[in-house]
Design goal:
single chain; Glutaredoxin; Serine Threonine Protein Phosphatase 5, Tetratricopeptide repeat; 9% strand; 15 helices; alpha/beta; five-stranded mixed sheet
């Protein structure tokens, strides 16, 4: 094998480290201008990507430049953890549509492959941005699942695993998209056991997003379709939570009392008693 091919991966790493050294040496954030290039660097480094959609006419974007991206805490956070890319909204409309950008500034955190994790529309203060960067967990599992989905985007087990991994990391909005995909999958429609798990986890994710109405609707389906499930007390408890969140305390009491009467020795019953005392 030619010498160059043997050491090509090493040269790529050296090039990436060179970029990192450049960003650490300069007292500013190093911005890529191309998402694909930024993703290649992020994949090699195992880092998340931060996308800043901006435009010349955007006054808050200019405030982000002067007040946020020049802040030492933000610069340091980027150097330690992120690959930053700036995309001009007027020149990159197709990419903006992909990320549902309709107002500026629009800030998106993605995994190393550009799959959205969280987003924010509008100005974000320097300390808040630094805090978000520091709170992003390691992405090895999410990146690994992303690679598997690139090979087979319709694999139900991987879609569901991605939903779970994103939810466990606190990326509930992104997690919802994968639970929705899993719930629509033909495998979920034909296997009752799989469908039950997906619907229940989907409802719990919606509760994290405080979408109590949709969560309640899914949990009511669970109680109807899986009335003999061992998870029934958990369905009832989660349904009570959704009712409480919606201000429907009367309905919540009915669900909680059903747990106490039908499953008095269950873990859910202990939790139901605590919730009832708080109503």
């Amino acid at each position: 094998m030619p010498f160059f091919k043997l050491f090509r991966p090493l040269l790529v790493v050296v090039a990436i480290l060179g970029h990192a050294a450049e960003t650490h040496a300069a007292d500013e954030i190093f911005w890529y201008r191309d998402l694909k290039q930024a993703s290649n660097v992020a994949q090699e480094a195992g880092r998340p990507i931060f996308i800043d959609f901006w435009a010349d006419w955007c006054t808050p974007c200019k405030a982000m430049d002067s007040q946020v991206y020049s802040n030492p805490k933000v610069i340091e956070a980027f150097k330690r953890k992120l690959v930053g890319v700036r995309l001009n909204f007027d020149l990159q409309r197709e990419t903006a549509r992909k990320f549902n950008v309709w107002g500026l500034p629009h800030l998106v955190f993605t995994n190393s492959y550009g799959t959205p994790l969280i987003s924010h529309r509008g100005f974000m203060a320097a300390q808040d941005l630094a805090n978000v960067v520091d709170a992003i967990p390691p992405l090895e599992e999410i990146n690994s699942l992303d690679r598997r989905l690139q090979q087979n985007k319709d694999d139900l087990a991987t879609v569901l695993a991605m939903g779970r991994a994103l939810g466990a990391a606190g990326f509930f909005e992104s997690s919802k998209l994968y639970y929705d995909r899993a719930a629509r999958h033909s495998g979920a429609r034909t296997d009752p056991t799989v469908r039950e798990s997906i619907l229940y986890e989907q409802a719990l994710n919606l509760l994290e997003l405080r979408d109590s109405k949709q969560a309640a609707g899914i949990l009511e389906i669970c109680l109807k379709e899986f009335s003999t499930s061992v998870r029934k007390p958990e369905f009832l408890l989660a349904l009570a939570r959704s009712y409480v969140m919606s201000g429907l305390t009367g309905k919540a009491r009915v669900s909680l009392n059903s747990i106490l009467s039908d499953y008095p020795e269950s873990t859910a019953a202990n939790q139901a008693r605590v919730v009832l005392k708080s109503l």
